[in-house]
């Protein structure tokens, strides 16, 4: 049961909120004085605080500042009949989770508290996922500065505890298998097996026996019984990667497994019960494949219960710099030396297109580290390949090639201009987007004549 502290100088409102929240299942405490409420909030464990803005002696914003600076961990929701949007913005800047204008409906208060609790639960789940995969190079998919990847991780947290089938889509190298592993590790099946198979890597003639197993004598070379991947994943999770490559006859058999929770080994007459949570991943447009008759519509509908899409790295450039830092640490550990990427190197990497996505970025950093004995990688360490279509010299200019330095400078100029445009000139936000310090951004802007 969540504990809520109601802070308001109106006795009638304190009483009505206490009754409302108690009926909704909360453990409610109330205070009418801001200073007393602050002392109690810091001394006792609360999950949520509902606080009025206008109070005598200590107002709500002063309470909020004191609570945040005192290390309070509860989510604070402010209430006020005055100030409108300006009061709401002021409260948010001080650290409030949300703002409810008075007068409010009872269901509005309860809904706001429920949303706050859900956000906190999702945040804890995502933090757990990151901690679980932190020691693995595959944790690249859980580095999420961009809004799109944060939304993907929220979906992971929501679906993990259920047996629901999930379809994970995205280009090669975006981290589809890592997301599948994250779902498994956050699920009640985490202690059981996680089995992954790439449907495109196994010949069609062998795929059925690989998935469902076979019995002795089922075909030439079947010298004994062998369980398939579904049986190996019994009680756990099975990931069918590149499921768009599954042959149509096998699609029908897979659909039956999903509907009946039974498999039949090749050459066997009896069926076997299996308890498997199925995850599927693909780089293909399965809806388009189904419309073209290359993928069963009923199987697509069965797989597409919940869809998690991982956008390409070019559409979430906010993730490139933190990913690069992460890969540098991982590669450095493997090579036995400290490794980092300079601000200039990060700028170069952010400007790159990365058609191979996070996997290509990881390989680029590893290649640079192996070919260099430096501890801090600079743009020149990443090779002569331009980060985007090469800028060309004018016809009247001497020389037929662009030097690496000119390529890097042009890439930096475009990246900085793009970040400033995206943040409407907010230099602090632009520096964060580029993954460099504000001081470095000012230096680069002055160097390239950008205002």
Note down, in words, how this protein is organized:
The chain folds into three domains: 3-102, Rossmann fold; 144-311, P-loop containing nucleotide triphosphate hydrolases (Rossmann fold, 3-Layer(aba) Sandwich); 317-448, Helicase, Ruva Protein, domain 3. It is 47% helix and 14% strand. It has helices at residues 11-23, 34-43, 60-69, 84-94, 106-133, 147-159, 176-185, 204-212, 229-232, 248-260, 286-291, 297-303, 320-335, 343-351, 357-371, 404-422, 427-434, 438-448; strands at 3-7, 27-31, 48-52, 75-80, 98-101, 166-170, 194-198, 213-214, 226-227, 237-241, 262-263, 272-273, 277-282, 306-310, 340-341, 376-377. Strands 2-1-3-4-5 form a five-stranded parallel sheet, sandwiched between helices. Helix 1 (11-23) links the parallel strand 1 and strand 2 (27-31). It is flat.
Q: Which blocks of ≥5 consecutive residues have pLDDT under 50? A: 133-141, 385-402
- Number of helical elements: 18
**So what's the oligomer here?**
single chain
Radius of gyration: 28 Å
Number of domains: 3
Name of the CATH class of the largest domain: Alpha Beta
CATH architecture of the largest domain: 3-Layer(aba) Sandwich
Shape: flat
Mean pLDDT: 84
Going by CATH, what is the homologous superfamily of the largest domain? P-loop containing nucleotide triphosphate hydrolases
Q: For the terminal residues, how far apart are their CA atoms?
A: 54 Å
Layout of secondary structure:
Blueprint: E1 3-7, H1 11-23, E2 27-31, H2 34-43, E3 48-52, H3 60-69, E4 75-80, H4 84-94, E5 98-101, H5 106-133, H6 147-159, E6 166-170, H7 176-185, E7 194-198, H8 204-212, E8 213-214, E9 226-227, H9 229-232, E10 237-241, H10 248-260, E11 262-263, E12 272-273, E13 277-282, H11 286-291, H12 297-303, E14 306-310, H13 320-335, E15 340-341, H14 343-351, H15 357-371, E16 376-377, H16 404-422, H17 427-434, H18 438-448
Parallel strand pairs: 1-2, 1-3, 3-4, 4-5, 6-13, 6-14, 7-10, 10-13, 15-16
Antiparallel strand pairs: 8-9, 11-12
Helix pairs in contact: 2-3, 5-6, 13-15, 14-16, 16-17, 16-18, 17-18
């Amino acid at each position: 049961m969540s504990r809520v502290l109601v802070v308001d100088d109106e006795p009638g409102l304190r009483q009505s909120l206490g009754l409302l929240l108690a009926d909704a299942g909360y453990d409610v405490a109330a205070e009418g004085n801001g200073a007393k409420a602050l002392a109690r909030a810091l001394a006792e464990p609360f999950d949520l605080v509902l606080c009025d803005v206008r109070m005598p002696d200590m107002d709500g914003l002063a309470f909020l500042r004191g609570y945040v600076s005192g290390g309070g961990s509860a989510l604070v929701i402010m209430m006020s009949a005055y100030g409108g949007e300006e009061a709401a913005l002021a409260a948010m800047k001080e650290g409030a989770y949300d703002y409810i204008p008075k007068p409010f409906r009872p269901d509005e208060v309860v809904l706001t508290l429920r949303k706050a609790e859900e956000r906190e639960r999702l945040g804890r789940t995502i933090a757990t996922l990151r901690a679980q995969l932190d020691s693995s190079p595959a944790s690249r998919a859980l580095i999420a500065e961009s809004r799109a990847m944060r939304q993907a991780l929220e979906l992971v947290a929501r679906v993990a505890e259920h047996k629901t089938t999930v379809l994970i889509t995205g280009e090669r190298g975006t981290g589809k298998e890592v997301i599948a592993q994250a779902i498994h590790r956050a699920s009640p099946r985490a202690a059981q097996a996680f089995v992954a198979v790439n449907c495109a890597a196994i010949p069609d003639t062998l795929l059925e026996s690989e998935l469902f197993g076979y019995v002795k004598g089922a075909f030439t070379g079947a010298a004994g019984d062998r369980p398939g991947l579904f049986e190996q994943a019994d009680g756990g999770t099975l990931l069918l990667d590149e499921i768009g490559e599954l042959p149509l006859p096998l699609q029908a058999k897979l659909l039956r497994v999903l509907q009946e929770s039974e498999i039949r080994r090749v050459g066997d007459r009896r069926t076997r019960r299996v308890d498997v949570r199925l995850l599927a991943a693909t780089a293909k447009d399965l809806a388009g494949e189904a419309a073209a008759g290359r993928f069963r519509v009923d199987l697509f509908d069965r797989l597409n219960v919940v869809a998690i899409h991982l956008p390409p790295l070019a559409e979430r450039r906010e993730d490139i710099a933190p990913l690069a830092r992460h890969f540098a640490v991982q590669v450095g550990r493997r090579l036995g030396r400290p490794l980092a990427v300079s601000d200039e190197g990060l700028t170069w990497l952010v400007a790159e297109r990365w058609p191979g996505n996070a996997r290509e970025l990881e390989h680029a950093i590893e290649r640079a580290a192996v070919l260099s004995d430096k501890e801090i990688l600079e743009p020149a360490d990443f090779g002569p390949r331009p980060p985007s279509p090469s800028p060309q010299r004018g016809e009247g200019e001497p020389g037929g090639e662009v030097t690496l330095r000119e390529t890097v400078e042009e890439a930096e100029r475009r990246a900085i201009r793009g970040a400033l445009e995206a943040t409407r000139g907010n230099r602090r936000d632009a520096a964060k987007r580029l993954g460099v310090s504000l001081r470095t951004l000012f230096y680069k802007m002055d160097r390239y004549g950008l205002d």
